[in-house]
Write a structure and sequence with these properties.
The chain is of the alpha/beta class. It is built from 13 helices and 13 strands. The strands form 4 sheets. The chain has a 7-stranded parallel sheet with strand order 5-4-3-6-11-12-13, with helices on both faces. Strand 11, helix 7 and strand 12 form a beta-alpha-beta unit. The protein is globular and about 60 Å long. The two termini are 27 Å apart. The structure holds nicotinamide-adenine-dinucleotide and sodium ion. The site of sodium ion has 6 residues, from helix 2.
């Protein structure tokens, strides 16, 4: 069928298989253009189908010739209905990996469940024996707890005070005031249950006790800090509590991994347009100002540039891994650059519907958003019939 973007709120209901393929191939080309990284050879990526996780899988495979196992939760195609973009991304990734002679297999299911953890362990045992890197890159609004069965829902709310500030509807470009009422205690606990470190710890416990972590294995999860303007809804809000928990979990996992000489890290990444971040109020306005400034300075990066730099300039150099005073890897350094942040803060104050197209990179935001779903790529004929029914061979 001919596939066009169909927007509803913060999501796009359709995705384009050829466009998703193009997105993956562009990322592969970028990684190859940067040369080899002396990285891990057997890599498990949890949350491997979009955003930072997909970029981690691509960087491992095409930067270090790694065998990869990807875990994700994506919708397969159905007659007349496209798959979710992560499904087509993973199909394209696996095809490219196989063409390059690289092992790649994927598991599509709920990573929070005991069952998917057990399936992953079985697959590692059968095919790879052990893994030497585990990337944890889940972003989800819900988690069913594997022990209690409780369905936790995360919320994006401030803690304590009502928050009011500017936001933009990036589809229309309309800048308006948004007011978000504070969370209750249950909201904090639920958000920490979904996006905190408990599941990461459960994964690492399961992998360690199954003996599928190689000597010196490393695990990395992703976090975010960001600017003052987003603090009330992000870092000091409910999601920030979850990120605090994730960051402290790294130390606990490192203690557990001591017996195999392993280590756990959190990497603080840059703000980027992904399915997860588009749904957070205030963030799209911040991102559109940030993009404009960073593009002008020549320091703008997407997921693949971020992760390629994380692997080549932080994780796998000859030296030790540099961390901040809280033990975190910082690859958000160019975003948090003082001059950049000062400029964002100034532009923020004066941002209106009328001036945003010139002071911010609203078009960049929109085109990145469309790209997430495989739309807007050069070299893809969107007027042509596309086969939405393509399937990932051997998907578990
Ligand atoms: P994303 O939405 O692009 O990717 C989420 C991944 O998790 C997908 O592969 C999805 O299939 C998978 N997933 C979700 N629920 C799942 C489940 N139940 N079982 C299995 N897989 C599941 O998100 P992203 O923006 O790449 O976020 C990844 C991490 O990076 C998050 O921890 C996020 O907070 C962090 N981060 C994001 C940004 C940003 O600006 N986007 C910045 C810094 C850090
Ligand atoms: Na991801």
């Amino acid at each position: 069928m001919i596939i066009e973007p169909r927007m509803r709120g913060f999501i796009c209901l359709t995705s384009h298989p050829k466009g998703c393929e193009k997105n993956v191939l562009n990322q592969i080309d970028y990684v190859k253009s940067k040369g080899k990284i002396a990285g891990a050879k057997k890599v498990l990526v949890i949350g491997a189908s979009t955003g930072f996780g997909l970029a981690s899988r691509i960087t491992s495979a095409f930067g270090s010739d790694a065998a990869t196992i990807g875990v994700f939760f994506e919708k397969a195609p159905a007659e007349g209905k496209t798959a979710s973009p992560g499904y087509y991304n993973s199909l394209a990734f696996e095809a490219a990996a196989k063409d390059a002679g690289l092992y790649a297999k994927s598991i599509n299911g709920d990573a929070f469940s005991n069952e998917v953890k057990a399936q992953t362990i079985d697959l590692i045992k059968a095919d790879l024996g052990q893994v030497d890197l585990v990337i944890y890159s889940l972003a989800s609004p819900v988690r069913q707890h594997p022990v209690t069965g409780v369905l936790h829902r995360s919320v994006l709310k401030p803690i304590g005070d009502t928050f009011s500030d500017k936001t933009v509807d990036f589809h229309t470009g309309n800048v308006s005031e948004v007011t978000i009422t504070p969370c209750n205690d249950e909201d904090i606990a639920n958000t920490v249950a979904v996006m905190g470190g408990e599941d990461w710890q459960m994964w690492m416990d399961a992998l360690l006790s199954a003996g599928v972590l190689a000597e010196g294995a490393m695990t990395v999860a992703y976090s975010y800090i960001g600017p003052k303007v987003t603090e009330p809804v992000y870092r000091k809000g409910t999601i920030g509590m979850a990120k605090d928990h994730l960051e402290s979990t790294a130390f606990k996992i490192t203690e557990d991994l001591a017996k195999i000489g392993g280590k756990a890290f959190v990497s603080v990444n840059k703000a980027l347009v992904t399915q997860a971040s588009s749904a957070i109020p205030v963030i799209p306005l911040y991102i559109s100002l940030l993009y404009k400034i960073m593009k002008a300075k020549g320091t703008h990066e997407g997921c693949i540039e971020q992760i390629q730099r994380l692997f080549s300039a932080r994780l796998y150099t000859n030296g030790s891994i540099p961390v901040d005073e809280k033990g975190r890897i910082r690859i958000d350094d160019w975003e948090m650059d003082e001059a950049v942040q000062k400029e964002v803060a100034e532009l923020w104050k004066g941002a209106t519907t009328e001036n945003l197209p010139s002071i911010g990179d609203l078009n960049g935001y929109k085109s990145d958003f469309l790209n997430l779903f495989g739309f807007g790529f050069d070299g893809v004929d969107y007027a042509a019939e596309a086969n939405e029914m393509v399937e990932i061979p051997g998907l578990i």
